[in-house]
Amino acid sequence: MNAQKTALRTVALFEAFKGALVLAAGCGLLALFHGDAQRFADALVGRLHLNPAKNTPQVFLRLLENISNSQLWALAGFAALYASLRFIEAYGLWRGRRWAEWLAALSGGIYVPIELYELARHVTWIKIGALILNAAVVAYMCYALWVSRRRRPPAA
Questions:
Q1: Is 95 exposed, middle or buried (0-12, 13-18, 19+ CB in 10 A)?
Q2: What count of other Cβ atoms lies within 10 Å of the Cβ of residue 32?
Q3: Which domain, by its residues, includes 77?
Q4: Rounded CA gap, 145 and 109, in Å?
Q5: 89 with 141, same domain?
Q6: Do 63 and 52 share a structural domain?
Q7: Same domain, yes or no, for 67 and 20?
Q8: What angle do CA 127, 128, 132 make, to 5 degrees?
Q9: 6, 13, 34, 132: least surrounded by Cβ within 10 Å?
């Protein structure tokens, strides 16, 4: 297996991991239907040893305090849709499809300005890591598109 195919498959695995992570989060949202969302939020804040008086846990607690079943279904549906897109992208990259390379470059590129904005607001190692990883994927996908374009014979 050549280096380009290995790199594409690595990106495919990364995209599949992101899809699985979002799918798990969506299933977690559906699990809230069978319990009390507020109790779950309180337990999660306590388990993560967060200070419930701070801003971020407060926002999370207030959000789940007022969420309805239809909103949970909508969020879970969005998670399923996003995960499906990531799995389709991963499949296309694994199979070396050009459309998947375009999808990976464009969908990854959308997040770079948001990550830069978030990094400008507050620097954390997680934000730096996410930006570096995402920028590396976008740069590699652009390189792969450039290489595959040069290899294609000219259109008649």
A1: exposed
A2: 19
A3: 1-96
A4: 14
A5: no
A6: yes
A7: yes
A8: 115
A9: 34
Contact 65, 32 (CB under 8 A): no
At residue 95, the 3 state secondary structure works out as coil
Same domain, 9 and 60: yes
pTM greater than the 0.85 cutoff: no
**Alpha-carbon span 138 to 60, nearest angstrom:** 31
Distance (Å, whole) CA 86 – CA 25: 14
Which residues in 1-28 are b (16+ Cβ under 10 Å) and which e?
eeeeeebbbebbebbbebbeebbeebee
Instruction: Provide the token pair at 16.
Output: 């599949």
For residue range 78-93, what is the model confidence (pLDDT) as tens digits? 888 999 999 999 999 9
Question: How many domains is the chain built from?
Answer: 2
Q: pLDDT tens digits for 15-63?
A: 999 999 988 887 876 776 555 666 777 776 677 777 767 766 676 667 7
Q: Check whether residue 46 and residue 3 sit in a common domain.
A: yes
Q: Could you tell me if 43 and 79 lie in one domain?
A: yes
Q: Which two tokens mark 49? A: 């040893």
Do 134 and 116 lie in a common domain?
Answer: yes
